[in-house]
Amino acid sequence: MTHSASYPLGGTQTELQRLLAQAEVYEPESKWLLDQIGIQPGWCTVDVGCGPIGILNLLSHRVGPQGSVVGLEREPRFVEVARAEIAKRGLRNVSVVQADALNTGLEKNAYDLVHERLVLLNISARAALLTEMLSLLRPGGTVILADVDNVSWLCQPPHPSWDVLLNAFHTVFHAGGGDGFIGRRLPALLRGAGVQDVQVKVTVATPKLGDYRRTHLLSVIDSVRDKIIVSGLLDEFQLNKHREALLRHLNDPAAVIIDKLFVQSWGRKPG
Q1: Mean pLDDT, residues 87-115
Q2: For residue 190, what are the CA distances in angstroms to 128, 132, 193?
């Protein structure tokens, strides 16, 4: 298995487990949106950057046996897990294609819905990705962008280790081409690409003890810890010290965590 050099969070086992947990956390919002769009049996759909599961299962149930779902994923490790997941779940109308999202190789003007979740924030070629997504859609088809905006991400009462680790994460993440504040720009990106009937929904959670999102900052720190150390932002001792201190703080039921904004924006390709 190979790991991507350009995906800011890498293809490690830690990142794989984080993505699986993430898919479960965002499932209610994704279900709501798919229900609003009104997916019909027989639709042909694509989940770009599906990772180990994405919304492949949600699309599969909605398009039915006459429809099809293509999961597009570049990371070899995640492709293998996704194929194992769809086999385990018996999703016979789902296939996973290993390809770059900027050059999918899929048929143009052929799909009823093309979706990405938490992909745009990880790459710098955002306009090119949206152009490729729209090229796959038939006229009148639906495009969905779903990403986060870290503007709201904080803990109360404040903790110095939160500030240190969040700053370290943002530094290496943005250096790798990511944008933790892309969520606010999704509607503008769609309108700029000529998408019609653009809509947007923003949600934010306050995760309690036991919720994956409560310790999400620690999860992404674990995914990029080597990059933080190599960059000289923190040495291994400092990183471990801050991680342990923050974990104690997050395990205090009195601490309030406000999560990142989750932004969903969607519209139609011009007919």
Answers
A1: 96
A2: 12, 13, 5
